[in-house]
Amino acid sequence: MKLVSIGEMTIDYYFDQRLSFVGGISLNFAVHAKRCGAENVALVSCAGSDEAGSRIRRHLTNEGIDVSHVSGRPGKTATCDIIVNNNAERSFPEGGYRPHGLPDFKLTDRALAFIKQHDVVVSMFDQSQPEAFFNQVSTKINFSGLRVVDFGNWNDYREGHDMILACLDKLDIIFVSGNRGTVDFLHTISDEGTGLIVVTLGALGSIAIYQGKLWVQKAMPVARPVDSTGCGDAFQSAFTVAYLRTGNIKKALRQGAKQAALVLQHYGAFSQTGHSNP
Predict the structure, then answer these.
(1) Among 55, 56, 53, 44, which Cα is nearest to 72's?
(2) Which domain covers residue 142, as residue numbers?
(3) CATH number of the domain residue 142 falls in
(4) Which of 4, 45, 54, 113 could be cross-linked to 118 through a Cys-Cys bond (beta carbons 3.0 to 4.6 Å apart)?
(5) How many CB atoms lie within 10 A of CB 85?
(6) Which candidate, 176, 173, 181, 154, places its Cα nearest to that of 240?
(7) Residue at 20 is within a domain
(8) Tell me: the pLDDT tens digits for 214-252?
(9) Is the pTM of this model over 0.90?
């Protein structure tokens, strides 16, 4: 399996714990995909010319991830501040996300040619930077492989769900976080598209929807939860790798739940060595 993840990578700062970790939605997906058994994994993104950018490249190289299309640009690498409460739930303080050069990131013809060499392309939709991470690779380019998109939180779209609905017949796997109301709505229209929809429900588990059918997976119990940051990314990655290997939705949901439970037991979106103080 040759998988390429396109989009965000950051340094995550935990000021209460005085720790920092390599992170970001697309980077997290790539790392977990590699750890879950995808043979070839690449990340397409951009980093600044600072030490944070060098740190990210070193970490990805150590993970065995292809960084040949992590482009460099002058300035700082994206950063994200994270607060973790006593229940291990994470939140992002206002103004704590600093994307720096990410909103200006564009895919070159060379990068698009590289992407087309893969079996699976994974992208994200972020309403602040949609063009590079979504439109070019998810619906526009001629790509013979499978397309996977993380749409984030369903409630963030408010009344603007038309874009997601329009993609149901263009994408192979759609991830969205939401609640049972999200599931009920998507279930009613799932026959209209060919894509597999997976709704993550946090501590309530996850539900997959495909051609009018539902598969339910409870969250795996964790005795001492620490930090929920990256649990969704871990779930999505493990699910994708398992589903594309086996075609079994039930098994894929279970693998996703297992991977998310591992992440919940430590700070950071995946277990890391060499974390540092900010």
Answers:
(1) 53
(2) 2-263
(3) 3.40.1190.20
(4) 4
(5) 11
(6) 173
(7) yes
(8) 999 999 999 999 999 999 999 999 999 999 999 999 999
(9) yes
